[in-house]
């Protein structure tokens, strides 16, 4: 490869439709080697297929039609005689409409088929029709229905969108187990990420491996890591091991670098979610990325002082409203560090979620203690806060009536990384919230103006209401 001049991916130019035959050979070889090493080739997808927003090759193909029928809607399994002609017709449309050089077709119609996680990374925010797309590309025949859809709540533009992820195990789950980590991320790792020289040493990977192995032993439903915790390639890698053990991953990843139209260097600070779904007839990972909206005060200063970089969010939403994720029957949303301080974020989620996940790199633990305690009561949900071990106060907070019950898990300090599993009681919370007048136990009364989302009305309340004075 060195003789060809392609020792790494940075030597290859983009866009994909301008790749030379030698570059295509190099990429296909990488796919092959990735398969042999069981390595995710998410980095390859990011460079060659996940070109920004609407320019993604897969997204372009997704919008192509033959006789006004989407390529992914065409049934090519009716007869063996029509199979090859249908494939050839699709091939001709892709080549013609996208003006792709014929030599680049091995990359598009590769024998190394994109798996559900790869397609999920490519499509990211485009959730509707996901099962049909996977079926078309991989030749699956899933008849379970597409449970992974986007839902726009009616009658209120200020209500968050709901991302539905099918998961049979969580469809009737009354409780979920969440592993919060006390995981240290060094300041030097942060600086290395800023100057685009990320630390990917064996020592650092072994630190991550230990926490993943501990999670595998304890088998929670979710493993949560703090803000900017790991390189994004490692997130894809460990998510596969967690999938085998039925554990979904929510983690902060190191800065994703880019350049805007004015040639200004920018970064994205993202939380990545790898959520287990089974609506293809087998378990696979659905990927979601949510970017931090605004840099924290000191973060913005340091980014610009060190590397003249600005942090932005890759979002075109009118209010930059945070989505709600319906994973089976568990409703949650995520915020990154200082986003918790925005009262609008908390207000829009009230009544919509069972739990709020907040990942942080935050040394002002005293101020955030107040934010977390307030959020649990005014949103009236569980709050899962996971901070860098250097500063601590990772916890699961609940709006229980008795103060000594409210911190289900709370950890700080120590010389070594570790995790603790806490339980979120979905059923009890919703039964309590479903009363017009809040019962005496076990939670604090819902705040004035609280209205439970219709999507969360699964359980009929089973509490016996005592005819006593209502507690304020």
Can you walk through the features of this model?
The protein has 472 residues and is an alpha/beta fold. It is 33% helix and 19% strand. A hairpin with a 2-residue loop joins strand 1 and strand 2 (69-70). Helix 10 packs parallel to helix 11. The N and C termini lie far apart (72 Å). Residues 1-14, 32-54, 76-81 and 463-472 have low confidence and may be disordered.
List the helices and strands and how they pair.
Elements: H1 21-36, H2 42-48, H3 57-63, E1 65-66, E2 69-70, H4 80-98, H5 105-108, H6 116-123, H7 130-138, E3 150-151, E4 162-165, H8 168-171, E5 175-182, H9 187-194, H10 202-218, E6 222-224, H11 232-244, E7 248-252, E8 256-259, E9 265-268, E10 270-277, E11 284-291, H12 297-307, E12 310-311, E13 324-327, E14 330-336, H13 343-349, E15 355-359, H14 365-380, E16 382-386, E17 394-397, E18 407-411, E19 418-425, H15 426-433
Helix pairs in contact: 10-11
Descriptive labels:
single chain; alpha/beta; six-stranded mixed sheet; 33% helix; globular
The total strand number stands at 19
**Rounded mean pLDDT score:** 80
Rg, please? 24 Å
The low-confidence runs, each spanning 5 or more residues with pLDDT under 50, are 1-14, 32-54, 76-81, 463-472
Q: Gap between N and C termini, in Å?
A: 72 Å
């Amino acid at each position: 490869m060195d003789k060809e001049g392609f020792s790494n991916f940075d030597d290859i130019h983009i866009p994909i439709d301008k790749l030379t035959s030698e570059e295509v050979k190099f990429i296909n070889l990488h796919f092959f080697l990735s398969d042999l090493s069981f390595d995710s080739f998410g980095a390859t997808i990011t460079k060659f297929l996940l070109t920004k927003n609407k320019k993604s090759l897969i997204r372009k193909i997704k919008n192509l039609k033959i006789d006004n029928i989407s390529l992914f809607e065409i049934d090519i399994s009716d007869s063996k005689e029509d199979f090859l002609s249908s494939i050839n017709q699709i091939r001709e449309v892709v080549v013609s409409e996208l003006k792709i050089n014929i030599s680049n077709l091995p990359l598009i119609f590769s024998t190394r088929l994109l798996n559900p996680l790869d397609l999920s990374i490519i499509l990211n925010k485009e959730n509707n029709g996901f099962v049909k797309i996977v079926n078309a590309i991989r030749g699956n025949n899933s008849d379970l229905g597409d449970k992974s859809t986007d839902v726009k709540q009616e009658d209120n533009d200020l209500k968050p969108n709901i991302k539905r992820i099918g998961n049979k195990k969580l469809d009737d789950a009354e409780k979920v187990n969440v592993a919060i980590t006390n995981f240290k991320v060094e300041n030097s790792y942060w600086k290395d990420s800023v100057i685009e020289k990320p630390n990917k040493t064996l020592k650092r990977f072994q630190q991550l491996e230990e926490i993943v192995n501990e999670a595998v032993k304890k088998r929670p439903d979710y493993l949560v890591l703090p803000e900017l915790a790991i390189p994004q390639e490692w997130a894809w890698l460990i998510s596969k091991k967690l999938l085998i053990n039925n554990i979904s991953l929510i983690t902060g990843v190191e800065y994703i670098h880019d350049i805007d139209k004015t040639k200004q260097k920018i970064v994205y600070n993202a939380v990545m979610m790898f959520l287990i779904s089974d609506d293809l007839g087998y378990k696979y990972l659905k990927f979601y990325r949510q970017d931090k909206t605004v840099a924290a005060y000191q973060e913005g200063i340091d980014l610009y002082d060190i590397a003249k970089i600005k942090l932005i969010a890759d979002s075109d939403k009118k209010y930059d409203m945070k989505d709600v994720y319906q994973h089976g029957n568990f409703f949650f949303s995520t915020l990154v560090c200082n986003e918790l301080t925005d009262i609008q974020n908390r207000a829009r989620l009230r009544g919509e979620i069972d739990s709020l996940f907040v990942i942080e790199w935050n040394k002002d633990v005293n101020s955030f203690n107040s934010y977390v305690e307030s959020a649990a009561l005014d949103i009236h949900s569980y709050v899962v806060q996971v901070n860098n071990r250097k500063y601590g106060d990772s916890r699961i907070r609940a709006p229980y009536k008795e103060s000594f019950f409210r911190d289900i898990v709370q950890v700080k300090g120590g010389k070594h990384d570790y995790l603790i599993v806490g339980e979120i009681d979905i059923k009890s919370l919703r039964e309590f919230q479903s009363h017009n007048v809040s019962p005496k136990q076990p939670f604090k009364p819902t705040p004035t103006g609280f209205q439970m989302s219709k999507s969360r009305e699964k359980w009929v309340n089973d509490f016996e209401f005592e005819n006593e004075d209502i507690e304020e």
